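All the exercises in this workshop are built on plain-text protein records. The record below serves as our worked example for the rest of this section.
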Amino acid sequence: MVDRILEFRGINRDHLGMYFEELGGRLVTDSFPFVYEAASWRAEILSEDELAFTKTFIVNAVHIRFEAESLEELEQLIKNYRYKTTRVGG
């Protein structure tokens, strides 16, 4: 198994979990670390913190470990997940 830990900011932890379900994952735990499993990958929502840039501008920061059988599968999982988390301003 290969893995990578990434940080996502400003996205609700529940939404981040929902994106794993949309990619075919199944939630297997009810508390930190929240674990999602599929046939060829696994993901763990490890922690959620708050980052304060100013007194009024505070965002959450969620750390996620992605695991897959091969580097190619890992990169594809992360690519698909990033599509789900992309926010376009306008």
Notes: The chain has two helices and five strands.
